[in-house]
Amino acid sequence: MTKVLGFILVMNALLCCGHAEGTILTIDPNWSTFHPGERVTFICDMNEGKDTDWEYEIKKNGEQFLHSNPRKSFTLLPIQIDHSDEYQCCGHRKSSGDTKCSDTVSLTVTAQPKPTQTAGPTTIPVGGSVTLSCSLPSAGWKYKWYIRTKNTPEVQLTDEENRDINVAQAGIYRCLGMRPNENYQSLVSDEVSITISFSNEVVVTRQPNRPQMFSGESITLTCEVQGGETTEWTCEWRRDGKTVKVGNDKHLTVSVNESSSEEYMCQCRRRDDWFSVTKWSEKIPVSVSVMVSSPVSSSFPLLLIVGPFSGIVLIVLLLLLWHYRRSNVLCCISQSSATNHGVDQTEGHLYSSLLHGTTSLYETVHPSGATGNERCHNPEEGSVYVNVRPGHKSSA
């Protein structure tokens, strides 16, 4: 009898306060993560008697969260961030007041997610394709895909709801996640641009076409699309991997300096289809040589001007000197012929003066042939002054 009473007491304790193995709490939808604005339904199954035999209660972190209700399911809408916690359901038998509680279930609520869109190569050849992938951090999503171009608005790809899609069309793609059977969606992903690469060869030409340039000079590079002469293009220029110009012309003018030593490449897009492009051209080096002055190179242009001019001046000087010398000789010959007859008179006059005892006589003695008033100019000849005294030798 005592054993029977003890068994009854244990069973009552389990029914009142214990965790019956048959009591189960489930959530629907059964996702690992929820987001603000979504809904979740708690379902409490006592697995004993009829559902109407019980009143149900949902506890959050051990405390009452949803009041007793004759229905076994409770819907929480909308979910908020602070709803993340541990939940448990308890059933109270109406006839006896016995209580059964389930194990706890975790509910995780995070902010509205943003999908990550990835692609293989973003530039594909004509006739090729690429796989795009849209991923979210939790399960339970379907996906929507959108495409637009530079000249067309964004439209949905209605046939695509998968996480991964295969595309062969150039354009700008975005994606988002949708909860199944729920009017709830994720944020929209970042854009991914897919371009189609034509087989046209692109060649860069140079003007002037010299392998090296000097500081201060300019060079014009031209991006030529082989086989695309009748198409209007927008071309992009890159220098050492960085874009330096995008424009509707094919030319790039570069002013070089002493520090310039760079590589240029170009790519062109069709103006009527921004996502259809050529391949990149080969890298074109622009090497700059520093101009170094040297005696020969720096003076050569000057010699071309000064040389002939100096020769002309020298010839003129020689002609003037020749003319001067010739005139001087003719002058001396003429004067000599005109004055020869007066030499004897002059000498006689000088001798007479000396005989008459003149104390001191200063006489200017001119070279032979001179009259005393004009003479031939000779830098080696000059006037000689003689001091003549009677009875003494003359000294010069």
Low-confidence stretches: 1-20, 291-298, 341-388, 392-396
What would the principal axes of the Cα set say about the shape?
A: rod-shaped
The main sheet comes to: 11 strands, mixed
Number of helices: 3
Give the DSSP E fraction (strand runs of 2 or more residues). Answer: 35-45%
Distance between the termini: 184 Å
Binned, the helix content reads 10-25%
Mean pLDDT: 77
Structure explained in plain terms:
The protein has 396 residues and is of the alpha+beta class. It contains 3 helices and 27 strands. The strands form 6 sheets. Strands 10, 12, 13, 15, 16, 18, 20, 21, 23, 24 and 25 form an 11-stranded mixed β-sheet that branches. Strands 3, 4, 6, 7 and 8 form a 5-stranded antiparallel β-sheet that branches. Residues 1-20, 291-298, 341-388 and 392-396 have low confidence and may be disordered.
